[in-house]
Amino acid sequence: MRGEYPKISLELLEKLLNERFSEGFLTLKDLPHPSIFKDMQKATERIASAIENREKITIIGDYDVDGVVSTTLMIRFFEEIDYPVEWIIPNRFKDGYGLSSQLIPRIIGSDLAITVDNGISAVEAAKRCKEEGIDLIITDHHIPGEIVPEAYAIVNQKQNACPFPYFEVCGAQIAWYLIASLKNTLDAKIDMLRYLELAAIAIIADVMPLQHINRAMVKSGLKALSKSSLPSIRAFMELHQKNECSSEDIAFFLAPLLNSAGRMEDARHAVEFLSSKNIYDARVRLERLQGFNTLRKETEEHITQEALKQVDPQDSVIVVHGEEWHEGVVGIVAARVARIHQKPAIVLSSNGEGTLKGSGRSVENCDLFALTDTCREYLKKFGGHKAAIGLSLDEENLDIFKKRLQKEYGEKGYQPQNGDPEIMGELDFSTISFKLTGLIKTYEPFGEGNTKPKFITRKVRIVESATMGKDHNHLRFTLEHNGCLLKGVKFKTTESFEADLLVDITYQVSENHFNGKSSLQLLIDKIVKI
Question: Is there a contact between 416 and 343 (Cβ–Cβ < 8 Å)?
């Protein structure tokens, strides 16, 4: 395994983890007041006026988890104050992203339209709203373009002259803050902590850094989720036989379920699930989401295998394409291809009419947005950020686009990633103890910007190796290093390892609680034979 890493002691680990939190551990008391957002008071007063005058209000969300949760939060608030609103989640395949001109016919007749988790790029749609006499309030967290939509109010921490002190917050957090502001203005008797349980889902799913106020909101939200009375959350916990909800449960199980509806059919199914009024409806709707997620996994696996066959190992930036690859999963496929090859990857689908449309995902050392921006002349549509992009182009421009990407990558001086940035250091088995896991726990919840510590140990001897699971696609190990024995598991692998083999391993340390007994085990990420 490439890379040089420091020798880890408990003292060094604590120092490295502390460095992630320049402000220390914030709590809900440290949350800035809603009025610090530019236009928040203006937006609040307009909505309060609409409620007082019984105006028609329409909420426009988005089809990812952040958009689904943001929409659900707004629906829940208006239900609690007993005010009727309409809501729209654009369909990924028919409507495209966010508030678009295509949606305007569906909101004509509204007096007020409120976007959540979208709208900052809706310049044309905002003009149409004005022409139709619809006041538009945009709440969003994405970076504004050179031209900002003309709206009644824009609440977005990334817009110019907004004094809100935290740059990386998600759409559901903005929606939560809007609800908090409305609660104060309307003197509504609602519990903002209960809204945090859903907001926490979006913060994790939208890969916000789990630092500053994000950590405080997620930590409180996870506690609320574990005690939730929401039928949807109770049904999810029941399905997974959980008493508590962790950030990993959301990232690996709940978020993909919610996302699958928008990826495979329509995200309104996810909103309906989260908004379930009783456990029976929630179970039925959860089963539907499970069906979407199963289909998503099968489709993603098939396309990933097809994409991997096309990869040219000489390319610095991977670009692959296929006929009618499902648009809902090409972003996930790009992420998997990028992770496997440790290179930026773009996965495109041909619509059979000469247009390629798809997504790209980057790796640690490459700004994929800036790189692809140098090739904008070949693109029909393009947007995104450093780590993820969306794009479309004419099929006839594909070859020149690929060549230009490789050239620009070389000229920008990017280098293949050396080592794993998530590895904190080399750990001796003798240092692995309940004191270590206790220290690690104090820095939960883990996620973006605060990843669970990963370690490397070299020259580990495999004492024993065996398959487990009904499909025999997991491995369990007994491992020895400098006289210390530990158990380890590696999930979802087709590899095999014989006894007495010397290997380097990367892993996380976890506690295993079973039948009242606690033990330490290694969750193995990679095994490299020496």
Answer: yes
Q: What fold characterizes domain 317-411?
A: Diaminopimelate Epimerase; Chain A, domain 1 (3.10.310)
**How many C-alpha atoms does 409 have within 13 Å on its Cβ side?**
22
Which residues are CB-neighbours of 479 under 8 A, at least 6 positions away?
429, 460, 461, 462, 463, 485, 486, 487, 488, 505, 522
β pairing state of 423-426 and 112-116: unpaired
Compute the distance between CA of residue 38 and CA of residue 46 in angstroms, rounded to an integer. 14
Cα distance between residue 269 and residue 351, in whole Å: 26
Q: What would you report as the CA-atom Rg of the chain, rounded to the nearest whole angstrom?
A: 24
Residue-wise DSSP of 321-380: EEET--TTTHHHHHHHHHHHHTS-EEEEEE-SSSEEEEEEE--TT--HHHHHHTTGGG-S
Amino acid of residue 94: K
- The pLDDT tens digits for 256-265 are 999 999 999 9
- CA nearest 129: which of 116, 141, 147, 115? 115
The sheet that has 153-155: what strands, in order across it? 86-88, 57-60, 112-116, 135-139, 153-155
For the full predicted model, state whether its pTM sits above 0.85: yes
Query: What CATH number does domain 420-529 carry, 2.40.50.140, 2.60.130.10, 2.40.50.460, 1.10.10.10?
Result: 2.40.50.460
**Whole-angstrom distance, CA of residue 291 vs CA of residue 284:** 11
Averaged pLDDT, groups of 10, the chain, 530 residues long = 84 96 94 97 98 98 96 98 97 90 95 97 96 97 90 96 96 98 96 96 94 97 96 96 92 96 96 98 98 95 95 95 92 93 94 91 88 93 84 95 94 73 93 96 93 95 90 90 95 87 95 85 92
For residue 496, the tally of other CB atoms under 10 A from its CB is 8
Residue 275 tokens, joined: 């908004």
Query: Which of 294, 274, 271 is closest to 282 using CA atoms?
Result: 274
C-alpha span between 104 and 128 (Å, rounded): 7
Q: Look at domain 31-287 and name its CATH class.
A: alpha beta
Domain ranges in the chain are 31-287, 317-411, 420-529
Cα(118)–Cα(126) distance, integer angstroms: 12
